[in-house]
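Our consortium's second objective concerns turning raw sequence data into structural hypotheses that experimental partners can test. To show how far this objective has progressed, the report includes one record in full. It was chosen at random from the queue rather than selected for favorable results. The single chain below, 253 residues long, was entered without modification.
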Amino acid sequence: MAHKLLLPRGRHYRAEPDLEIGWFKYYINSGSREICTLQIFQEQESKGIIILAHPYLSVAKKFFLIRGHAKMYYDAGYDVIIFDFNGFGESPFVDFNYAFDLSVVASHIKNRYPAKRISGHGVSFGASHTISYSTQPDNVFDKIIIENCLDSNLSYYRKRNLKLHWTMLLLMKIFPTVNRNHNYVESISKLKNISKALFIYNAEDDLTTIEMGEKLLNACNICSEIIVFKGQHLNAFQDNQFVYTNKVTTFLR
């Protein structure tokens, strides 16, 4: 019930097998978790592994197939992992600990490919949980790309659904830990083991604003930079493909 109330888009997923041609589908299990991943590896030695964390959309991991991020990274020489957070796509709902979903995926990949450098790229919802995961001392990421991230999940509810905003505020008073780790400005100041961070924002985005990105940049405790592209929320790559590709691949070198 809580999942449907707070994240209603999570269960409106339709499989599109044609999009998955050439990808290896693999479920990573940890306790009650079954995280659905799609993986594609270079035939020759790769430049490293990139794990992509999807935004809050019903298409879940397909976002990166539809919009082209996955192909961009593969064409640039990276092994690519995309996955569904629990309660989205083909990963059954367990709980709201989405950073743990990412931990399950990243740890599994690191155990299988210990010599490969792994980086993370999260978009919006996925970006916030990439930050949360990257505060853990055992995270395996080298660099992270944080795209269209909120300063706090309360900002999303305040903008998109005032009823849920007030519901969350009430829950926080009754259960002080219910919104733990969702102040991303605070979390970004506690990154562990990450060598560098890149923040990506859009000039016409009124949900995850440039001001939010600047808050994250200023609070970040490691070497970091921000780039602002033209376009609206989630459209940085599709509206600026050449410059975007050059920027993220240069950053990951």
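The partners drew two points from this record. Residues 98-112 form the longest helix (15 residues). The chain has a mean pLDDT of 90. Both points have been shared with the crystallography group to help prioritize constructs.
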